[in-house]
Q: What sequence folds into this?
């Protein structure tokens, strides 16, 4: 696919409510802005070209996210897409299927849990919240989080902005119970 722009956002939180964290919470979002070959007024039944193209994009932006996470490693992940107004939401969903997800998982060194996602149609500068969850066990409540991203000049009407988002840990000061990271069994992606 024709990538017009790559955009990376790094957010690092060092303290929350006056409590300094032993390890900061780093969140990284990498965006690939691509031309949508199906933008326009016509309906396209088969979106396999978008699904197939998502592998290479997932590999590329997944690697970029891991590079920006250093010196930390990826503990949680999420994905999202903003679809320009000449496209349809399903075009973004097609770019985020298991093909993209598996490329992301490989880039971050594996992961057993399904990858939370969100898609919406939007214009340039629209805000999107990317959901995050632990990469190996969905029920690790401390890792239920998200990252807000805005791409100043994307997506244009005939574009899709595909987003890979990762974090190195759970929320600062998490204390509402649930499965602890150290108790993950890693058998089914849930616990």
A:
């Amino acid at each position: 696919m024709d990538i017009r722009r790559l955009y990376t956002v790094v957010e690092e939180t060092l303290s929350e409510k006056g409590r300094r964290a032993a390890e900061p919470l780093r969140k990284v979002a990498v965006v690939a802005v691509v031309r949508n070959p199906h933008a326009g007024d016509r309906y396209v039944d088969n979106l396999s070209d978008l699904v197939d193209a998502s592998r290479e994009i997932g590999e590329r932006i997944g690697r970029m996210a891991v590079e920006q996470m250093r010196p930390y490693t990826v503990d949680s992940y999420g994905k999202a897409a903003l679809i320009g107004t000449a496209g349809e939401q399903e075009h973004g969903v097609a770019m985020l299927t298991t093909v993209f997800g598996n490329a992301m998982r490989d880039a971050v060194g594996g992961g057993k849990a399904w990858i939370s996602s969100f898609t919406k149609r939007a214009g340039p500068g629209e805000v999107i919240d990317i959901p995050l969850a632990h990469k190996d066990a969905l029920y690790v409540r401390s890792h239920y989080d998200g990252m807000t991203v805005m791409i100043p000049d994307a997506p244009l009407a005939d574009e899709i902005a595909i987003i890979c988002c990762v974090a190195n840990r759970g929320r600062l000061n998490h204390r509402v119970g649930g499965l602890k990271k150290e108790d993950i069994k890693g058998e089914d992606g849930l616990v």
Q: What stands out?
A: The chain has one domain: 3-183. The mean pLDDT is 96. The first strand starts at residue 3 and ends at 16. The domain at 3-183 is CATH 3.30.1330.110 (60s Ribosomal Protein L30; Chain: A;).
